[in-house]
Amino acid sequence: MNPDPASILVVEDDPNDALFIERALDGYERSHSIAIVPDGEAAMAYLTGTSTRAEAERETLPVVILTDLKMPRMDGFDLLRWLRTEPRLNGVPVVVFTSSTSDRDVAEAFRLGARGYMVKPVHFEELEQTVRSVVEYWRRSLVPRTLSPRSSSS
Known about the structure:
Blueprint: E1 7-11, H1 15-25, E2 33-37, H2 40-48, H3 52-57, E3 64-67, H4 76-84, E4 94-98, H5 103-111, E5 116-119, H6 124-140
Parallel strand pairs: 1-2, 1-3, 3-4, 4-5
Helix pairs in contact: 1-6, 2-4
């Protein structure tokens, strides 16, 4: 596995929100490969290399995963649960990016291993700044090599 320090996985079922997130990163970090999948099941397939797109693109782990919570088929909570069971993916930071302001959702997301929780801003300029800040933070962050998605796997 050759980690790509420039990859971002966005798990978002709303096509408009996905487009806004992609536009927020467009021009800012186009050196990043950005993959957008519609739900947790598609994220699993992408991360394990079982999707068609994954076969073409996924020799790497993302620097960060941005996930919504409320999605069909497999929601963000179930995705967080699954990620905790995958040793190869434990070091990949997951930031919840959702419209939910529920204290229960925030607590559950962190309990399940989220490294951040952001409420989607209503205005594009705020969304752009928030997404860019999250990506920049995790792109520059150092994590222990045993947890790092950037360290080579044997």
